[in-house]
């Protein structure tokens, strides 16, 4: 159970980071934000850097067919993010229950 929870927390954190970077890339309208995004693209070969690069390149592409494909991809990605985060919430609620039980047990044994 604990390894499963750790895996879910790790994956959910990555999901939140991925989503945040996508939002930053897709809403980078001012020059400072664009400069920041361009700078971090070259820092490493991480999955996050690939996401940023994809979003920046996609934002500059006006082809309607590509936009349709990207929209469908984004819908599926968001649904998967939501599923992963709901799974984390469920695991968190179970863990909170276990923690409450441990607290009660420890308080009884004082």
Structural features:
110 residues
Please explain how this structure is put together.
Helix 1 packs parallel to helix 3, helix 1 packs antiparallel against helix 4 (64-108) and helix 2 (31-41) crosses helix 3 (47-59). This protein has 110 residues and is an all-alpha fold. The chain has one domain. The model has no long low-confidence stretch (mean pLDDT 76). It has four helices and no strands. 85% of the residues lie in helices and 0% in strands. The protein is elongated and about 65 Å long. The protein has helices at 2-26, 31-41, 47-59, 64-108.
What topology emerges from the helices and strands here?
Layout lengths: L1 H25 L4 H11 L5 H13 L4 H45 L2
Helix pairs in contact: 1-3, 1-4, 2-3
What is the gyration radius calculated from CA atoms? 20 Å
Compressed to H and E, one letter per element, the order equals HHHH
Unreliable runs: none
Overall body shape: elongated
Helix content: over 70%
- When the domains are counted, the total is 1
The main β sheet shows up as:
none
């Amino acid at each position: 159970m604990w390894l499963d929870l750790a895996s879910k927390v790790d994956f959910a954190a990555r999901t939140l980071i991925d989503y945040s970077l996508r939002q930053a890339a897709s809403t980078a309208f001012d020059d400072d934000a664009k400069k920041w995004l361009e700078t971090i693209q070259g820092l490493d070969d991480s999955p996050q850097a690939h996401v940023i690069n994809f979003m920046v390149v996609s934002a500059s592409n006006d082809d309607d067919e590509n936009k349709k494909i990207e929209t469908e991809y984004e819908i599926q990605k968001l649904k998967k993010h939501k599923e992963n985060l709901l799974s984390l919430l469920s695991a968190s609620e179970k863990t909170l229950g276990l923690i409450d039980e441990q607290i009660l047990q420890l308080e009884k044994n004082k």
